Amino acid sequence: MGAFVDVFLGRMLRCVHGLKDKPPSALKDFSGAVSLRTFNPGEHGGLSVRAIRRFMVLAAVVLFISSCATTPVSEKKALILIPFEQEKELGSKAYADILKEEKLSSNDRLTAIVDRVGMRVAAVSDMPHLDWEFKLIESEEKNAFALPGGKVAFYEGILEVCDNEAGLAAVMGHEIAHAIARHGAQRITQELILTGLMTAAAVRLADDRNSDFILAALGVGATVGVRLPFSRVNESEADEIGLIYMARAGYDPREAVGLWQRFSEEAKGEPPEFLSTHPSHKSRIEELGALMPRALAEYELAPVKYGKGETLMDK
Predict the structure, then answer these.
(1) Which pTM value belongs to this model?
(2) End-to-end CA, the chain
């Protein structure tokens, strides 16, 4: 049974840390401590405290393994304890709250473009059948977000940096990727583990004690409309997935590099990467360049190619 525990603990750690090799040698001592080799339910008239503890450890290991998800495109492992239906419910509730406080754009042309590009990217994503919604908010803020369940919003200010449909598709793919990769659920899971709650029942927006951290985990602030950053690992993964999605949708993926070059010009005095939760624009551009051969191959397979698409703003 000790070898059995070794295997399960190894899989759990590979899920959490993305390990590919054998279980660390440190697991041997730990697995020995939780081994059921000495388990005998008949001893001392029933289950001993020690045996119950061992059973609880094994139960926790099984929970971790059953909650290990593989992210599309990047193929990375992630630990998620929140049921998908519950995650979608949280996203829909947060989205409705945000839209109550924000004014939608009166620009019919740009609103239609955001919806059109969004539908094209969503259609080639790994969750095309979600109830996708795309809203354009009247604001000079250069921002966008996607919440679980396919709820996406762009602020008018970001469209100037996007410049064209392909630039918009790059941001759209990135934001949709956060939802597809379930980065919000990953952050909620991390919080549950840190707080020791270990139960999805504690995750309810209606509960004022937890609403702030839930909104933050989903990528928006308690002050609705405030976009909070994901980790650098999540952001890089969303860049990778989003690049593939925009290419599959028929938009030239090379325009993603142009987008971040424009963002770099906008972000004067950008803090060093190690001080930020986001990758630096320089790092992002380099990483996108490394991913470009795969993205271009996807682009060549797209049944319809839109290239850069329509220019968004009047020059």
Answers:
(1) 0.72
(2) 70
- Tell me the catalytic residues: 175
Note the pLDDT of residue 22.
Answer: 38
Q: What is the DSSP letter of 164?
A: B
Residue 10 contacts residue 27 (beta carbons within 8 Å): yes
For residue 249, report the phi and psi dihedrals to the nearest 5 degrees: -80, -5
d(CA 300, CA 297): 5
Structure tokens at 73: 């495109």
Closest by CA to 54, choosing from 10, 14, 11, 1, is 1
Neighbours of 20 (CB within 10 A): 7
pLDDT reading at 285 higher than 50: yes
DSSP assigned state of 25: T
For residue 59 the two structure tokens come to 């139960």
Burial class, 131, CB count within 10 angstroms (exposed 0-12 / middle 13-18 / buried 19+): exposed
Tens digits of residue pLDDT in 191-243: 777 666 545 555 554 554 555 666 666 666 544 444 455 677 888 899 999 99
Cβ count within 10 A of residue 52: 11
DSSP state of 23: P
